[in-house]
TrEMBL record:
Keywords: Cytoplasm, Hydrolase. The keyword NAD does not apply. GO terms for molecular function: peptidase activity. It is found in: Cytoplasm, Cytosol. Gene3D superfamilies: 3.40.50.880. This is Glutamine amidotransferase domain-containing protein. It comes from Digitaria exilis. The lineage of its organism: Eukaryota, Viridiplantae, Streptophyta, Embryophyta, Tracheophyta. One of its GO terms (cellular component) is cytosol.
């Protein structure tokens, strides 16, 4: 069974086969707390499994990060989405950028989702900003998977190669989107893995150990609908925009199983028993 703990209850469990850290860049919404018990449970339900894993959560948005001494204890790190701008200069954002650079130097696996995707890009020398197409991208969007051929040594990547060999890497896939910022330019040496008609960098990787995804593989339909209502109440989107998103969701669903498989395959790529669950 997956063990999930917050900072106050965090203890090393020698029996755990793998250990992950969720770096939260957002506070739990009232809806997610009531329905799921918090975003920690949402992420673990999406990316975890029942193989004796342990997931710790650090509230990065409140300045909480793992100590340097603890970094080596983790097999992977996940950076969540956020209502904040990844190009902002809040102290917690700058500290999180510093941690990403440290993890990159250690060749630790780091998965960034939405804000996390953009923050990784910034931390490693890329450029991020407001979406050049303008406005919010909310709903389900189809992206083109542009990962290179497995026969290309430069493009070869274990977790993608295994998925490709098992015919689990489609040319196109739908994903849930909620963002108004984007990656403008990936870091030097990075490879763009997916793009869409609105966003040029929907997914990128750096080596075998860093993966950024602009969309939200972890989101369920009800979480997205709750976010649409919150954006409408805040005046961030118009009523007609919100209704259009809700109408789309009546007939269109993301390829969530594919995205969860991809994320798990990335996080567990060093474990033959977990690749491509």
């Amino acid at each position: 069974m997956v063990a999930i703990v917050e900072a106050a209850a965090r203890k090393t469990k020698p029996g755990s086969s793998r250990r992950y850290a969720l770096l939260m860049a957002v506070h739990d919404s009232e809806y997610v707390l009531k329905r799921y018990g918090g975003y920690l449970h949402v992420f673990v339900a999406a990316f975890g499994d029942d193989a004796g894993e342990e997931w710790d959560m650090y509230r990065a948005i409140d300045g909480e990060l793992p100590s340097r001494e603890d970094l080596g204890c983790y097999d992977g790190f996940v950076i969540s989405g956020s209502p904040h701008d990844a190009y902002g200069d809040d102290q917690w954002i700058l500290r999180l950028c510093g941690l990403v650079r440290e993890l990159h130097a250690m060749r630790k696996r780091v998965l960034g989702v939405c804000f996390g995707h953009q923050l990784i890009c910034r931390a490693l020398g890329g450029r991020v900003g407001k979406a050049r197409a303008g406005g919010w991208d909310v709903g389900v969007r189809e992206v083109a998977i542009v990962a290179g051929d497995a026969d290309d040594a430069k493009a070869s990547c274990r977790f993608l190669d295994v998925m490709r060999q098992r015919h689990q890497l489609p040319r196109r896939a739908k994903i849930t989107e909620v963002h108004q910022d984007e990656v403008w330019e990936v870091p030097e040496g990075a490879e763009v893995l997916a793009s869409s008609d609105k966003t040029g960098v929907e997914m990128f990787r750096v080596g075998e150990h860093v993966l950024g995804i602009q969309g939200h593989p972890e989101y369920t339909k009800d979480i997205l609908l709750s976010l649409v209502d919150r954006l409408l109440t805040a005046g961030s989107i118009t009523g007609s925009f919100a209704e259009a998103v809700k109408r789309q969701l009546e007939t269109t669903a993301p390829d969530r199983e594919f995205w969860l498989r991809l994320c798990k395959s990335f996080l567990k790529a060093d474990d033959e028993d977990h690749v491509c669950l």
